[in-house]
Amino acid sequence: MLPAAARLTHSQDFGLVVRRGRRAGRPRLVLHALTSSALEQSASSRQHDTRGTPTLTGSQPAKVGFVVSKAVGNSVVRHRVARRLRHLVRDRIGVLPAGSALVIRALPPSAEASSADLGVDLDAALRRLKLGSTSGSGGAE
């Protein structure tokens, strides 16, 4: 389980990361990443929660959110994919830059993928976006 401080929970945060972040596509998932420097650049147009305070700031630890649509499968399959992705991210959250926000969107092929396959795709997407060193973090062992 990811700690509460490491989870994206507001829909505005998901939208901000997907809209303004960089993207890396892999066969089983798409990773959207917004770093703290990009957050600071968009401070004037930053989304706010219902109390009017910013929900994403560059001084927070890295935050991660998951999107697993019905195209992936039924609820059992979707929850299995989400659990696998959460477990993989938990092992890698320490190498992510502080203040960064990630949205991981599972694609339909993730339903048949093993945890090792998902880990390989996640590591490749993180490397492509130059987010932390992901060598030896439980890839295809």
UniProtKB/TrEMBL annotation:
InterPro entries in the cross-refs: Ribosomal_Su5_D2-typ_SF (IPR020568), Ribsml_uS5_D2-typ_fold_subgr (IPR014721), RNase_P (IPR000100)
Example of a GO biological process term: tRNA 5'-leader removal
Gene Ontology molecular-function annotations: 3'-tRNA processing endoribonuclease activity; ribonuclease P activity; tRNA binding
Residue stretches in coiled coil: none
Catalysed reactions, semicolon-separated: Endonucleolytic cleavage of RNA, removing 5'-extranucleotides from tRNA precursor
One Pfam assignment: Ribonuclease_P
EC number of the protein: 3.1.26.5
Region (Disordered), start-end ranges: 40-60
Top-level taxon in the UniProt lineage: Bacteria
Keyword NADP: no
UniProt cross-references to Gene3D superfamilies, sorted A to Z: 3.30.230.10
An example Gene Ontology CC term for this record: ribonuclease P complex
Record's keyword terms, sorted: Endonuclease, Hydrolase, Nuclease, RNA-binding, tRNA processing
RNA-binding found in the keyword field: yes
HAMAP family: RNase_P
Family that this chain belongs to: Belongs to the RnpA family.
Assembly and oligomerization: Consists of a catalytic RNA component (M1 or rnpB) and a protein subunit.
Cross-referenced PANTHER family: RIBONUCLEASE P PROTEIN COMPONENT
Biological role: RNaseP catalyzes the removal of the 5'-leader sequence from pre-tRNA to produce the mature 5'-terminus. It can also cleave other RNA substrates such as 4.5S RNA. The protein component plays an auxiliary but essential role in vivo by binding to the 5'-leader sequence and broadening the substrate specificity of the ribozyme.
Name the UniProt record assigns to this protein: Ribonuclease P protein component
